[in-house]
Design goal:
The complex is a heterodimer of chains A (255) and B (339). Chain A is an alpha/beta fold and 255 residues long. In chain A, 39% of the residues lie in helices and 24% in strands. Chain B has 13 helices and eight strands. Classes of the chains: A alpha/beta (255), B mainly alpha (339).
């Protein structure tokens, strides 16, 4: 199995709080990798370090063997990591289609001169961007909403749109930050089949999720963070049985 | 389209014949202000960066023209060489302003840009010592009029016994350039770059996560907006044949911002409407208020100048209350404001 993402000894401190302590994990190409843990365990911090929103204090990140020493989020996106946000961050006043078209930015080139002169190359690129955006909207199941203003989409559709926008950057690794948060059972089931489909199409997914049932059913492997430290990393069944994990979630008396 | 074209061609001739040449000059200024408003619209309307010192770029363009085509330094460069240079230099100033303010947004950015605008004006006011560069508060006079194909636009020309005034000639030049700027804006709005600007306005963090290099894209917005201001400034200098620092005060920046906001932020037709209205209406009021009061009350009760500002303020409040997205908003912006 080829390793896609490798984190070695990643640390991050905010003032007196050690949000991440020596976190090491390996994500294999083509798997769905879950990252769980109680509130405040450092899951989102790890996400933000991985995607360049925070600068890590210690440790190494390698994507497909290449060190990921990038200063800013847009370079991380270019390197091949796309993300969604825990509290959905869409471009609210743009249409669904435009949102996804923005996602194509990093894989396209047109500059000011091309845009003003509308050269043949720019027109072709623009058409390709629109086509790709529409295809992605269909792929995530909201093709009929292409012209809808993003803010007006239902909650579940906004989550899907955010995934479509992330996919538009052609990621090697798709990082989803609590995609099922706030969803009802039907929406969660639909989301599950969408993520399953992503794996079937060869994408690697890193999933932070509170919904334990979803994580256990979906993920190939799961890592558990507690208080900034990784306390377990294994297949879901083994993690569920791990006394350290039970202790982290339910307290020592249950372990 | 053809109708608008005809109206644009006939407007100065009709206005000149009916109301006199002073009104054609008002139209000239309207065209200049529309260029400024369109430039500021890129920064404020598209990219969502509140800039309160925009007039500084107008000043840079105007002074560049004044220094390169006046007896002050004895230089007499042609306008076609200075105007593109003015656009480039103003664009550079745009980057100079943009670079240190990349992390700022909203009110913080507004304060820094406001300071920048004032710094430029104060520099122009004081750069007459120890070496006299800008001639200080006295300003630079005797600037060369803009010449097209060797003809100075300040002089009227005769076409088959019909005299076309200098103001009308300037009008055609300004409108042609304003249309060029409209064209550039429309093309940019609907492009990869335009989408990136709007994405930054909507959510900067998400824009970064989508792979947009927000630093470069913001600097590009500052530079593009500033370069339009630089062109308008050069035209202004050639048209007035005189520049002084007092033309570039904070009030001017706010006026241009009002054009953008009143017209409809981010919506090109709205911004054009805003620029036209805020140039023509106050002028009409200044000319009209005195005679109207004379007719109604037999004497002028309120100084038209004071009354003009009073009504302008009231109009601003009314628009913000009843049409907060501007008089002619972008459809998507209207929806946002409706909530």
């Amino acid at each position: 199995m080829t390793v896609l993402l490798e984190a070695v000894g990643v640390g991050k401190r905010f003032g007196g709080v050690q949000a991440l302590k020596d976190v090491s994990l390996t994500i294999h190409a083509g798997e769905i990798y879950g990252l769980i843990g109680p509130n405040g365990a450092g899951k989102t911090t790890f996400f933000n370090v991985l995607t360049g929103l925070y600068v890590r204090d210690a440790g190494e990140l390698r994507l497909a063997g290449r060190p990921l020493n990038l200063a800013s989020p847009h370079e991380v996106a270019k390197a091949g990591i796309a993300r969604t946000f825990q509290n959905i961050r869409l471009f609210g006043n743009m249409t669904a289609c435009e949102n996804v078209m923005v996602g194509r930015h990093v894989r396209t080139q047109a500059g000011v001169v091309g845009a003003v002169l509308r050269t043949a190359a720019t027109r072709a690129e623009e058409a390709a961007i629109r086509r790709a955006a529409e295809e992605l909207l269909h792929y995530v199941g909201i093709g009929h909403c292409a012209g809808t203003i993003a803010r007006h989409l239902s909650y579940g559709d906004q989550r899907r749109l955010e995934i479509a926008r992330a996919l538009a950057t052609e990621p090697k690794l798709l990082a989803l930050d609590e995609p099922a948060a706030g969803m009802n059972a039907t929406e969660t089931a639909a989301l599950r089949s969408l993520i399953d489909g992503l794996r079937a199409d060869g994408l690697t997914v890193l999933l932070i999720e509170h919904d334990v049932k979803l994580v256990m059913g979906l993920c190939d492997r799961v890592a558990v963070l507690d208080d900034g430290e990784k306390i377990a990393e294994d297949v879901p069944a083994a993690v569920q049985a791990n006394p350290k994990v039970i202790e982290a979630y339910l307290g020592a008396s249950h372990a | 389209m053809a109708l608008i074209g005809c109206a644009l061609v006939i407007a100065p001739l009709a206005v000149g014949a009916g109301l006199g040449n002073a009104w054609v000059r008002v139209l000239d200024f309207a065209a200049l202000y529309i260029m400024l408003a369109l430039g500021l619209n890129i920064v404020v309307g598209f990219a969502g960066l509140l800039d309160l010192g925009y007039i500084a770029f107008y000043a840079v363009g105007a002074y560049l023209y004044a220094l390169l085509a006046s007896p002050h330094f004895g230089l007499h460069w042609p306008a076609w060489a200075i105007l593109p240079l003015g656009a480039a230099v103003a664009g550079l100033f745009g980057v100079l302003l943009g670079a240190p303010t990349l992390r700022l947004r909203g009110d913080y950015l507004a304060i820094v840009t406001l300071g920048f605008g004032e710094i430029i004006r104060i520099f122009l006011n004081n750069l007459n010592a120890p070496i006299n560069i800008t001639n200080g508060p006295k300003g630079i006079a005797g600037i060369d009029a803009i010449a097209v194909f060797g003809h100075r636009l300040s002089k009227p020309i005769d076409i088959g016994g019909f005299t076309v005034s200098g103001a009308t000639l300037y009008y055609y030049l300004f409108v042609a350039l304003a249309l060029a700027i409209v064209f550039v804006c429309v093309r940019l709005q609907d492009s990869r770059i335009g989408r990136a600007w709007v994405a930054i306005r909507e959510d900067e963090v998400a824009a970064k996560a989508c792979g947009i290099d927000t630093r470069n894209v913001k600097l590009l917005a500052f530079a593009m907006g500033a370069s339009f201001g630089g062109v308008a400034g050069g035209l202004f200098a050639g048209f007035q044949e005189f520049v002084s620092p007092e033309s570039f005060g904070l009030m001017e920046s706010i006026m241009v911002l009002c054009m953008v906001v009143l017209g409809g932020m981010g919506h090109i037709p709205g911004v054009i409407l805003g620029g036209l209205m805020l140039t023509v209406l106050p002028e009409a009021f200044r000319h009209g208020a005195g005679p109207v009061q004379q007719a109604l009350f037999g004497k002028v009760l309120l100084d038209p100048e004071a009354l003009r500002m009073l009504l302008f303020g009231l109009a601003l409040i009314a628009v913000m209350l009843y049409r907060p997205a501007g008089l002619w908003p972008e459809s998507r912006h209207r929806r946002e404001m409706a909530e």
